[in-house]
């Protein structure tokens, strides 16, 4: 059973998010989709939306706190209001654009692990590391597990090569297989691929033996496209 996740990033409104989720939820029923489906909307779009048991709403980010004086952040008090128990941690945009250190990421991970959240933990390398070869790539990726309990039972991993996110450049199947295969030998957890995944390549990518699903950005923001992605992967 594939795991298919949509990361809205800084897109959609509360109204359009509710419409998207309702449409996808109805599609899951009508097309007998059994995949695990996760949608990560913006924090301002959290709402009380009833969904099928295999469609979960997650948080793109949260501070490791219940509540407090942390301007611009949300904590578990805000997540609990909407019964959100799934969180994305370590995404490359938070690492490379918002400058989250590995220590900060590990602290956040430990906090949400202690509360039993489902964590989708992201790792991936920039272009200059990829160009240095597989050994350097894996060395870089493994460094992103510093301070991370890889045996946590509610953990899903996502490998997202930074150079393939939002660029239209997708890693080749050989690239994906090499990195995924190495990670899977070392860490026995579901492993998603992310990085320019689209309607027309998601099936091929998710058919690779060491790929357990996909974490998708741009190509998942239109409900019809996301439904087609679910249809294309439902038997994997």
UniProtKB/TrEMBL annotation:
CDD domains: TIM. The keyword Repeat does not apply. It catalyses: D-glyceraldehyde 3-phosphate = dihydroxyacetone phosphate. It is found in: Cytoplasm. Keywords: Cytoplasm, Gluconeogenesis, Glycolysis, Isomerase. It is an enzyme of class 5 (isomerase). Pathway: Carbohydrate degradation; glycolysis; D-glyceraldehyde 3-phosphate from glycerone phosphate: step 1/1; Carbohydrate biosynthesis; gluconeogenesis. Pfam families: TIM. Its EC number is 5.3.1.1. Substrate binds at residues 7-9, 166, 196. GO terms for molecular function: triose-phosphate isomerase activity. The active site is at residues 91, 160. One of its GO terms (cellular component) is cytosol. NCBIfam families: PRK00042.3-2 (NF000728), tim (TIGR00419). HAMAP family: TIM_B. Belongs to the triosephosphate isomerase family. Homodimer. Involved in the gluconeogenesis. Catalyzes stereospecifically the conversion of dihydroxyacetone phosphate (DHAP) to D-glyceraldehyde-3-phosphate (G3P). This is Triosephosphate isomerase. It comes from Halarcobacter ebronensis. The lineage of its organism: Bacteria, Pseudomonadati, Campylobacterota, Epsilonproteobacteria, Campylobacterales. The gene is tpiA.
């Amino acid at each position: 059973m594939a795991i298919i996740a949509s990361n809205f990033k800084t897109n959609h409104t509360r109204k359009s998010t509710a419409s998207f989720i309702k449409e996808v939820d109805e599609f899951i029923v009508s097309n007998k989709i059994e995949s695990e489906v996760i949608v990560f909307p913006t924090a301002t779009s959290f709402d009380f939306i009833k969904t099928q048991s295999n469609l979960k709403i997650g948080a793109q980010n949260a501070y490791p706190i219940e509540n407090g004086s942390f301007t611009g952040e949300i904590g578990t008090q805000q997540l609990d209001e909407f019964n959100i128990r799934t969180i994305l941690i370590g995404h490359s945009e938070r690492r490379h654009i918002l400058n989250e250190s590995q220590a900060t990421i590990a602290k956040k991970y430990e906090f949400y692990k202690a509360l039993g959240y489902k964590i989708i933990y992201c790792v991936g390398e920039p272009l200059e590391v990829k160009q240095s070869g597989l050994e350097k790539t894996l060395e870089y990726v493994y460094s992103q597990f510093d301070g991370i309990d890889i045996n946590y039972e509610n953990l899903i991993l996502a490998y997202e090569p930074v150079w393939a996110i939002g660029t239209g450049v997708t890693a080749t199947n050989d690239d994906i297989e090499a990195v995924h295969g190495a990670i899977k030998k070392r860490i026995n957890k579901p492993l998603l691929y992310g990085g320019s995944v689209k309607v027309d390549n998601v099936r091929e990518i998710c058919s690779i033996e060491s790929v357990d699903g996909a974490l998708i950005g741009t190509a998942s923001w239109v409900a019809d496209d996301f439904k087609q992605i679910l249809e294309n992967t439902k038997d994997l």
